[in-house]
Please model this.
Amino acid sequence: MRRLWMLLLPLLLWGQEDFISHYEYGEMLYANPRGVSCSQCHGKSGEGQIIVEFRDIHGKQALKGSDIRKDSLDDMIKSVNNYHKIMPRYYLTDEEVKAIYDYLQKKNEVYLEEFTESNTTQ
Model:
């Protein structure tokens, strides 16, 4: 029995895969990082969306989450780790923010390619 373990242990350690992929981890964090979903304000793909509409003395107003699809990783790390008037501070690690960033980059691959192409042809 001991010999069998000696043969199988290296194979088990070498063949170990992550429980979830990096993409799935980013998707999970974007959906619910610390109890408040990023998508509630930034939309399903980071495009930004209206959070609430209201009327005041200036008429109809809207509070909208920003489009974060073109943000750099550094911008996202700074944004998540700073205080804002509306956005909660999530206390995410740089690795967690990178997973969200990579998830959004992959999810918006076509949009970002089209955006890059339109900016280089002008």
Remarks:
- Strands lie at 50-56, 59-64.
- Helices lie at 2-14, 22-31, 39-42, 73-80, 94-107, 109-120.
- The two ends are 70 Å apart (CA to CA).
